């Protein structure tokens, strides 16, 4: 997997957290930059750890499935992408409940939200174990992208609200599917060439 594909993957992984950050920002009254940065760092660290966990789990299984590794990576990214698109198109009221939350967000609730939005990064980590990728570089990029996107999301949450949050998930899902298709194409073209 080349560097531009890793950057796109990192940005796609950060869209769930970005959407959640918009909701958190909408619930906070005039969030300050340092507040947003702290929330961004919390999400970023958790989002960087989960693909490492997934990668280690996937590495254990790689010797048994090496002939199908590219199909596994593609399928995982496809399923996650479709799920993100479906959630982005859904018309649920989860984000409206977040606006009723108190201004001060507890660290525990923020951490739980960060873990919930990073489950897909763990699954991506499993998929990355089956292809040639530097997992530390990928995890660092995912964490950095998430920190940046969450910080921005919190700061602009009150202004952008639900409109951008849903679109971010849809765009992230499309990017994940594209990255999965690129992995599959790259492997199949090498095998055929």
UniProtKB/TrEMBL annotation:
Keywords: Cell inner membrane, Cell membrane, Ion transport, Manganese, Membrane, Signal, Transmembrane, Transmembrane helix, Transport
InterPro entries from the UniProt entry: Mntp/YtaF, Put_MntP
Pfam families: Mntp
Keyword Nucleotide-binding belongs to the record: no
Locations listed in the record: Cell inner membrane
Residues passing through the membrane, by range: 35-56, 106-131, 138-164, 170-188
Signal peptide: 1-19
Keyword Disulfide bond recorded: no
A GO molecular-function annotation: manganese ion transmembrane transporter activity
Any GO CC annotation of this UniProt entry: plasma membrane
Entry superkingdom: Bacteria
Membrane topology, record value: Multi-pass membrane protein
Protein family per UniProt: Belongs to the MntP (TC 9.B.29) family.
Main function: Probably functions as a manganese efflux pump.
PANTHER family in the cross-refs: MANGANESE EFFLUX PUMP MNTP-RELATED
Protein name: Putative manganese efflux pump MntP
Organism: Herbaspirillum seropedicae (strain SmR1)
Gene that this polypeptide is encoded by: mntP
């Amino acid at each position: 997997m080349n560097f531009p594909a890793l950057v796109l993957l990192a940005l796609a992984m950060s869209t769930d957290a970005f959407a959640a950050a918009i909701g958190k920002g909408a619930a906070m009254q005039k969030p300050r930059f340092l507040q947003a940065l702290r929330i961004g760092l919390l999400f970023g660290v958790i989002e960087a750890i989960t693909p490492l966990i997934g990668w280690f789990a996937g590495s254990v299984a790689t010797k048994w499935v090496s002939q199908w590794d590219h199909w596994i990576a593609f399928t995982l990214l496809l399923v996650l992408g479709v799920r993100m698109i479906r959630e982005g198109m859904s018309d649920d009221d989860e984000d409206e409940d977040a606006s009723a939350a108190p201004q001060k967000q507890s660290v525990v609730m923020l951490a739980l939200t960060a873990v919930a939005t990073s489950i897909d990064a763990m699954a991506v980590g499993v998929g990355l174990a089956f292809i040639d990728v530097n997992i530390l570089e990928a995890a660092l990029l995912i964490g950095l992208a998430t920190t940046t996107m969450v910080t921005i999301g919190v700061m602009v949450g009150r202004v952008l609200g639900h409109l951008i949050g849903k679109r971010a998930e849809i765009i992230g899902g499309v990017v994940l599917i594209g990255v999965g298709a690129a992995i599959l194409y790259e492997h199949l073209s090498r095998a055929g060439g």
